Amino acid sequence: MTVIALAASDRLTPDDARLVDAVIAQLAGVRRLGVAFSGGVDSATLLAIAAQGLGASNVVALLGVSASLASRERAVAHDIAAQLGVELVEVRTRELELAEYRRNDGMRCFHCKHTLFTAIDETVVAAHGIDAVAYGENADDAVATDRPGQQAARLHRVLRPLAAVGIDKATVRRIARAYDLPVADKPASPCLASRIAPFTEVTEDKLRQVETVEAALLDLGFTDVRVRHLGNAARIELPEAQLHLATQDALRVQIVDVARAAGFTDVTLSLQPLRSGAFSAEMLQSRHGV
User: Fold this and answer.
1) Architecture in CATH for domain 3-178
2) Three-state SS across 125-181?
3) I want to staple 152 with a disulfide (CB 3.0 to 4.6 A). Which of 89, 113, 187, 189 is the partner?
4) What is the CATH code for 192-287?
């Protein structure tokens, strides 16, 4: 058992310890597991549990890399894998080559996940001796209505051990704290494409614009941010407690300058606080005629 696993066993509540054991039981018979890994709290927690149950040398973190992945998220993923002693393999995905993905409708996430799992099938499984692939869907995700990526996971027979044993988001975060994972309380950070206005084309240039401005705001001290790409305009969403900071003259000027340097001509601050998945909700409403 790894040092991290030993430390976690002392911090887990009895109920959470039973859930961890149940996840490990889900992996019974797997010799070498690939975990579709984003660096977020769900996949990081699954990676830690898998490393405990199978041994770190029998787990491979599979990080899909494309223009949709922010550089910060990529670095975080590498750090977590190193902390857990798990090999990380970058899998180059090419979703931007698909017209169906660039169309940016309600099935964009399906095409993204389908591309990732196809790339894993074709280039990674044999090379790394992987006999099963899992991803970090939790029990809350399993009942959500805006997760088309789940269809791709089912299509490729990807395991979903967290959801299978009923681990919800709050439990994921508790377990992540027990494993001392640095992302235990990290806000959700969907891919950069989720910032592009629904039904407008996803392009690499737009993704770079979003990443540039978001990175600058994080460097300015904001704890979370969404830059919604609305053509020539950037709509900035911030946590409610930090909205007032963006209106202070010094910061306001810096934000506008960064956004304009990235290619936006108009910069607006949303008076509504940041809501992860806002554009996904708009797509869902459109699909159901709401």
Assistant:
1) 3-Layer(aba) Sandwich (3.40)
2) HHHHCCCEEEECCCHHHHHCCCCCHHHHHHHCCCECHHHHCCCCHHHHHHHHHHCCC
3) 113
4) 3.30.70.2210
pLDDT in tens, the chain (290 residues): 554 555 576 889 999 999 999 999 999 999 999 999 999 999 999 999 999 999 999 999 999 999 999 999 999 999 999 999 999 999 999 999 999 999 999 999 999 999 999 999 888 999 999 999 999 999 998 887 667 888 899 999 999 999 999 999 999 999 999 999 999 999 988 999 999 999 999 999 999 999 999 999 999 999 999 999 999 999 999 999 999 999 999 999 999 999 999 999 999 999 999 987 666 555 545 444 44
What are the residue boundaries of the structural domains of the chain, listed by start? 3-178, 192-287
